[in-house]
């Protein structure tokens, strides 16, 4: 471990090393903290092959801290058919949920090639401990009635996303830890269309809309349920 590393004295550690912009601290409790540029390379080329003797660690938490943050994910299906149905789904995830989903192969529904597999993944999502989920279906009659009133599919989608977020936030007492934000795909040119549709509880959480939001595992999970 000492090769190429400048050893330092850090309280409560068995050893602490620094090299370039990488810090490696091994605490008396048994916790290993790796931070800085080169984290992935350290895990891949030192920790796994020389210490663990196997490749079994993920890098998401180090490279993308948002991966493990508690959050809501929202997605929809069926928006292109005037006769419906339109389905909007949402999920709450925390670190244990996303790590479980990653192991089980949860991904954006557009990347799943069979309805059977969609059903299998949906069952995994619904049965994952700690996951809170909701589905808001809008059948053909309601779809056409809402379309006649709202005139645009985007306004219907905005209502659906807002309703799903509200449903989830009504169960926030069950969410441990509480969600920090809600993430959804940006389906309209203006982000304000969803923001303006948010209901009472939904206004109390940060809303992030972005293109290709299905890359986020929470949104991918919602896409499976929808």
Description:
There is one protein chain. By secondary structure, the chain is an alpha+beta fold. It folds into 2 domains: 58 residues, 2-Layer Sandwich (TATA-Binding Protein); 158 residues, 2-Layer Sandwich (Nucleotidyltransferase, domain 5), CATH 3.30.420.10. Helices cover 37% and strands 23% of the residues. The chain contains 8 helices and 9 strands. Strands 7-6-5-8-9 form a 5-stranded mixed sheet. Strands 1-2-3-4 form a 4-stranded antiparallel sheet, with no helix packed on it. The longest helix has 17 residues. The radius of gyration is 22 Å and the shape is elongated. It starts with 5 loop residues before the first strand and ends with a helix. InterPro entries: RNase_HII/HIII, RNase_HII/HIII_dom, RNase_HIII, RNase_HIII_N, RNaseH-like_sf, RNaseH_sf, TBP_dom_sf. Its EC number is 3.1.26.4. Its cofactor is Mg(2+); Mn(2+). It catalyses: Endonucleolytic cleavage to 5'-phosphomonoester.
Shape: elongated
Average pLDDT over all residues: 89
CATH C-level name of the largest domain = Alpha Beta
**What's the main sheet like?**
5 strands, mixed
User: N- to C-terminal separation?
Assistant: 49 Å
Binned strand content = 15-25%
Low-pLDDT segments, ≥5 res: none
Order of strands across the main sheet: 7-6-5-8-9
Q: Tell me roughly what share of residues is in helical segments.
A: 25-40%
């Amino acid at each position: 471990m000492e090769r190429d590393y400048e050893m330092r004295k850090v309280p409560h550690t068995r050893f602490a090393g620094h090299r370039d912009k990488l810090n490696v601290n091994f605490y008396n409790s048994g916790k290993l903290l790796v931070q800085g540029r080169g984290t992935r390379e350290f895990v891949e080329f030192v920790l796994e092959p020389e210490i663990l003797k196997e490749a079994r660690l993920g890098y998401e938490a180090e490279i993308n801290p948002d991966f493990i943050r508690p959050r809501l994910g929202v997605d929809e299906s069926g928006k292109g058919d005037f006769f419906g149905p339109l389905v909007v789904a949402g999920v709450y995830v925390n670190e244990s949920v996303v790590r479980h989903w990653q192991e089980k192969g949860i991904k954006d529904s557009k990347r799943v090639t069979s309805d059977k597999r969609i059903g299998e993944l949906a069952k995994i999502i619904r049965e994952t401990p700690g996951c809170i989920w909701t589905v808001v279906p809008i059948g053909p009659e309601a779809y056409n009635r809402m379309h006649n009133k709202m005139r645009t599919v985007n306004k219907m989608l905005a209502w659906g996303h807002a309703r799903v977020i509200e449903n989830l936030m009504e169960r926030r007492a069950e969410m441990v830890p509480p969600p920090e934000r809600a993430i959804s795909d940006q389906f309209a040119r203006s982000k304000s269309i969803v923001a303006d549709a948010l209901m009472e509880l939904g206004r109390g959480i940060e809303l992030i809309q972005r293109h290709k939001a299905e890359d986020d595992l929470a949104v991918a999970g919602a896409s499976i349920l929808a």
